[in-house]
Design brief:
single chain, 85 residues, mainly alpha, 71% helix, transmembrane, membrane, GlsB/YeaQ/YmgE family stress response membrane protein, cell membrane, transmembrane helix
């Protein structure tokens, strides 16, 4: 059941991050989920909690996942376009 929640929350976080970074038109639901889940991993590492910090489902983990997704999309913008939006 935890994986289903991770996929749903990852999709929502990835979608919100893609809206903020103006990449929503170029991403589908699959990539929103991937960005949300990978963003959660990046956010946990940036936040100093390590991968074990993902086990807790609280406000901080949602904020960290969102920030991680923004970082991931910012890097993708740099690679694809050579600039940050």
């Amino acid at each position: 059941m935890g994986w289903i929640i991770a996929i749903i929350v990852g999709g929502i976080i990835g979608w919100l991050a893609s809206l903020v970074m103006n990449r929503d038109a170029s991403m589908g639901i699959f990539w929103n989920i991937v960005v949300g889940i990978v963003g959660a991993l990046i956010g946990a590492l940036i936040g100093g909690g390590g991968i074990g910090g993902l086990a807790a489902f609280n406000l901080w983990s949602l904020v960290a996942a969102f920030i991680g997704a923004l970082v991931l999309l910012g890097i993708a913008n740099l690679v694809q376009r050579g600039r940050v939006r």
